[in-house]
Records
---
Amino acid sequence: MARLRVRRVALPYGAALLVVWTLGGALDLLDRAWGRRGVGFLVSAMLLAAAAQLPFALWRTFVVERRFGFNRTTPRLFALDLLKQAVLFVLLAVPLAWGALRVMDGFGRFWWVSAWAGWLLVSVLVVWLWPALVAPRFNRFTPLPDGDLRRRIRALVARCGFEDGGVYLMDGSRRSAHSNAYFTGLGRTKRVVLFDTLVETMTADEIEAVLAHELGHFKLRHLPKLVALSAGLSLFALGILAYLRERPWFFGSLGVRPSSHAALLLLLWVGPLFAWPLRPLGLGCSRRFEFQADAFAARTVGPAPLRSALEKLCLSNASYLDPDPIHSAFHDSHPPPLSRLGALAQ
């Protein structure tokens, strides 16, 4: 509930900022300052927008999270994370923006198909490289130490056909007392990651159940399915952008001059507002995958340890057990905890 109260302030603040950027003329001023240099315009606009949201990141981390005993992030670590994120963003955004604008201006009428193919390639590369190259810049990942838990997990991993991957502990306790686990990567970079806070608070049976849930995502090919869904939506969005890019009223109604870089930024910033009614479709797919992974874990190790693990996760993360279904449909990537526990009980 405390997080929702922050969102009540952040939502109108973000809406006001978007009006200032567009109808208020801030984007047009920035465009003129860059002399219509598209790459500089795009990268600086995104950095300024992120900086404008910084007060809410500080509020969530050092007020809300600290109030409930979750925050372990120091101001120095917070600042270092911000610096790393900014450097990483610039390293990725500059070549991507340059490439996108070259395609938009030089590939003819159907540039959006070529742009989509390039976006798909970059997305797959990011998913593939993120666990090995990017994530270690923020956290330390170590293989599970030898012992009974490692032997049990190796047996479980072998049963699930996860030969090329690995199971790693992440030092999540450096920043937060929250506990979690996730599956990431493609091919030889795929891995299951367990927070060290999760391993510290759960029994071996419960850890095995959580791992079985994450392996269920791998076994049921949920990550490739989500990539395919995202690819379809992005193709549709780029097709819409190709249409709007040729319509002067689109730019004029939002307070900017016609250009490829302005069209691209407006797609990123304004497009999600019009796509918002479709959010339940994507989030509903994600929640369905979570139910399927739970069912896989129940078949693999039994439902009882997974139920116990979910209960501990809800308590340790101060999760809201039974949110309003309409709110959940638009905001939650995971099913309500009581729904998951009820499904396991059956």
---
Amino acid sequence: MRSPTQVLETALELGFDLAGIAPLRPPRRAPEYLSWLEAGRHGQMQYLADWKPRILDPQADFGRPGSLLVVGFAHSRPAFELADGTRVARYAAGRDYHNVVGKRLRRLARRLRERGLVREFRKVVDAGPLMERSHAAEAGIGFESKAANLLHPRFGPWYFLGELVLDVEYEPTPVPPAGSCGTCRACLDACPTQAIVAPGEVDARRCISYQTIELAGPQDPGLRGQHGPWAFGCDVCSEVCPWERRAPDLAARLGTHPVLETTTAADWVERPAEVFAALGGSPLQRAGAEGLARNAATALGNRPTERGRAVLLQALEGSPSPVLREAAAGALALGHGTEAPVRSALERAAGRDPEEKAALLAWRARCG
């Protein structure tokens, strides 16, 4: 095997904060991954099941022996919220990290080729058939936490992972950074929906990030009241982690999308197509226009205001999206259910569409 020194130095030269080499072999966490799938904890993320053969044998998927270069790109920044207090995950406040990290990885691959350090490669940023965190821990760029993410002594939980699958076998760099969760269980105790079902094990179906990003259709009625102000993603488990306090402020790296500086959750519900179209280059677009409006409606229900009630009633009575109409009904029941006009609006809406009647009447019943 070849020494990875030049490869790692090149990665750091191009602006990555962390770099390590893992063997191109089945992930150490494969048994946990299989149990997680078997329990159905991936929810609607069917691609994670469809990729099972590729995830379990990355060398066969790549088609030849090689190594896995894992990099970390830090993104720590202060907590972010819209002008009305609606929360968006910190990583999502600026440019889409898939693009930022992906472009940097392509430049890294070209530089490695120029230096004769690699011939063929495959780039992965988040959406790829790799157990990123398992391989990254094996490469020594973080230690596994009870929240099922990676922690680093300097950057805490605030860094993205990216990978280059290389066609050269380099010596692994398995020395992990010093640190551990110890007896701390802050993330398990603080999770609003109890999605961290055991140390290192997350039921995605209960996670606010899944409910606001990956989930299509209506959100779980039993969890919406625990979503609090979150309209895209959730940072609670990271914000309570003692390791996050050491991270530097790197907000300038991804910046802040201008739409998030000028809109509120009410705008997302009132003008979903317009807001979505203006979010070009933002990771928030992953949720789709309907998903963002649905999320914003839930946030408005958890933080009731006069304007929020007005736009929710407007959506309930006039939105062409059944998902948004149902979300508005739930938000009105949660935030304004004691108000007679709201109860009457829910009854009228239930009478207009037989297909939605049961769901809307269920929310009306929760009003008392």
